[in-house]
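Final paragraph of the annual report: two paired records, presented back to back.
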Amino acid sequence: LLSRDHDDHYHIEHNSAIAVFDKRRPGSRAALALFARAFDTFEPASKRDQPPLMVALRLAFKYQGFSHYDLPPHTFCRKNASDTVSCDADCLIVHKPMKYDPGNIVLGIGARATGSSTALTRLLNTLKLINKPNCLMLNSSISFSEKHDDRTPCKIYPPVTNIQQAKSLAHRFPRAKFILTVVSDPCPDQATHTQNMQTALPPNRLFSLDLSKAQEPEWRRFCAFLEIWSSCKFRDLAKIARAWHKGRALKRKQAGGESSCSSSSIPDVL
């Protein structure tokens, strides 16, 4: 990022690709302190991104002996600069992996009537996780290291309620994220489905979301789980959740106050 020979390029361009700190070096702690100091002093908060990092790197170059190293596009993979942008294509570092790595897909796995379809899709769309028209649904025959289709891979997939299918997708896509929508008063089949999904999938790749109870801390965790920060608008997410909750309450009222549980529902089994 910084050259020992010259740094004139900072007057005409700015490169905020990545800063690598070796924790074994005494200078790393000092360099991180420089970044923290620059971060705290920049106003407004909207500028607390690349500018303080640039200042910290310039100071680290000047006082801590930091140097410049160019990462080739097949090592640090970035949209419009690399042939592929995926950890499955030998990239060691991926820029915005949740947005550009086709292996990072999102699947709803909640039981019926828990918001796993329309409501969850609206939440993900609000976070700018949107499928482009005619996108490519990835499957077991597609390799990320090869270009099989000119279409953009889909990011969001239809709800999966079959537990064996969910386990298969978790194995096929090791970075896939699963959203398990739940309700506080589940029907027997919903409760069984939720328990089976929680047992079948790795907990670090599973997020349980109750749309009727989610508050700002929960939305914050939801966005962090999906690695989405800049487009995480709590009010917009809460508005979608409230609309779903009101619709659910209206259906129950129309049914005479009875729950929507059906004796004919058959729970999924492992």
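The closing record of the year follows.
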Amino acid sequence: MRVRGGGGSSSSLEMSSLATNPLITSLIPKIGIITSTLLYFSPMSAVRAASKDESLGDLNPIPLAIMAISSVCWLVYGLSIQDPYVTLSNVPGCIASIWYITAVLPLVKGDQLKNTQNIVVALSAITINLWTYLSLTHKSIVKVRSALGLFASALFIVLSASPLSTIKTVLSTRNSGSILTPLTFAQVTNTALWSAYGLAIKDKFVYGPNLTGLGFGLVQLVLKLSFPSK
């Protein structure tokens, strides 16, 4: 690999040192399991409040719908590559996110209900068909892992951007109440850690979506600071 202004030897050495650095390859993903759990649990208080009040309020159900499918896809990818860090970081999320969407769906009304249901059904259908195709066509394990990683990455990018689905409302009302503060901070912290780990192990399906998610998280953070919740 070459970089502007010089040869690739120093860059290769830097990447090699990252890949063998126990701080990057062991400690950071262990912390990442904690931050991933915090990310998945960050909507819990808002969901519990909405369920108790029997009112959705400012809570945006779309990220919860995407999270339910995304967490399952990342769990399957982690199992396929036999990476304990990627796997364990998504187990709590699968359970929590399925509860979120089942808890809020009875509170969603009108077009918002139709949109949320369509997202759940569409993403579930795509996921099931992908898994069926990969199994019945007897793809090699390398191709299976690649397909699972690509799909999980795409879903995570959509998940990371989904809180911004209310950006028009945020800008017009100057109120960022629809963007959950705990979810925003958890997303920024979590994606930063997993980006570092993905770069260290040279897995584009880990660092690619997490770097993108970090960017979306920072945009949400700017909106939260610029337009505080009312």
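Confidence is low (pLDDT under 50) at residues 1-15. This concludes the annual technical report; the extension proposal builds directly on these records.
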